Amino acid sequence: MKEIKLIQILAISGSLRNASSNTALLRSAIGLASEGVKITLYEGLGNLPHFNPDLEGREIFSVKDIRTQLQISDGVLISSPEYAHGIPGVLKNALDWVVGSGELYRKPVALINASPRAIHAQASLKEILMTMDAHIINEASVTVPLSSNQIDESSILSDSELSGILHKAIVSFVSAIKIIAKSAL
């Protein structure tokens, strides 16, 4: 059996804010990744055009880019804020662009969350991903309860409880990705 030598994880933040706690969580995950694991932060969410099925087959670079990045990833890590009891429109738009092309079909996905109050967005995101047949890894989907003074990467990494929760989730996610990859062979 061929084993994956480098696990590539695409990290997607549902927030466009520069000082986003969700993006800080993903950057912290990059810092906590072990050897043999590469987590790449997707930074093109704000560049995607509004989803329009009439454009299928004539997509611009940004659509092709997210599809390519999803295709080459072994798993996807998503951290999203909650707006008005749902996920931000930019994240939903990105997911809409890949519904028909299938980049998330049976792809391992973990959801991390910066706020225990964001239950509606997490539930909505889970429903959308299950509809797309993504493989949600529940053991790796966690809430990292950030306080208002812990919204940057260095604060998260220096807090042993927060970084411990995040590290455990990443280890669980990588383990699940390896198991899924072996079972697919």
Structure description:
It is a single chain. This protein has a single domain, classed as Flavodoxin domain (Rossmann fold), CATH 3.40.50. 43% of the residues lie in helices and 15% in strands. The chain is globular, with a radius of gyration of 16 Å.
CATH homology group: Flavodoxin domain
Radius of gyration: 16 Å
Number of helical runs? 6
- The N- to C-terminal Cα distance equals 7 Å
- How many beta-strand elements? 6
Count of distinct structural domains: 1
Helix content: 40-55%
How much of the sequence lies in strands comes to 5-15%
Largest sheet, in brief, is: 6 strands, parallel
CATH class: Alpha Beta
CATH topology: Rossmann fold
Based on the coordinates given, report the CATH architecture.
Answer: 3-Layer(aba) Sandwich
